[in-house]
């Protein structure tokens, strides 16, 4: 018997056996990790998944189950797919900004210095983003990614 129960056994209010499948992946100092996974997948299903995997793959599977459960709780409709979609949109917006700036650089390098037009911050300079007063793209979205993980 372990000296302390893992988060899973505490949550399930049972003794933690020495061969507990949850113990290495759901430590007692992080009970929320198991609570999220249990809420989405159920303890029995998670136990079956972990037992069916080779020992060297279990940690990765537990991390994946936790991340997917956490995202599903944050966004019940889309889960981690919603976050992936937002990140793809941010990559697309950055690529558009890069292409626009590269085009401006190419155009400016072919013009004499007297014909160069100065960029004014805040003006709408392309279809992919709207810059703020400093010319930085404003990527407002449904999610504030900085609050996802505590």
From TrEMBL:
<comment type="similarity">
    <text>Belongs to the LOB domain-containing protein family.</text>
</comment>
<protein>
    <submittedName>
        <fullName>LOB domain-containing protein 23</fullName>
    </submittedName>
</protein>
<dbReference type="Pfam" id="PF03195">
    <property type="entry name" value="LOB"/>
</dbReference>
<feature type="domain" description="LOB">
    <location>
        <begin position="4"/>
        <end position="105"/>
    </location>
</feature>
<dbReference type="InterPro" id="IPR004883">
    <property type="entry name" value="LOB"/>
</dbReference>
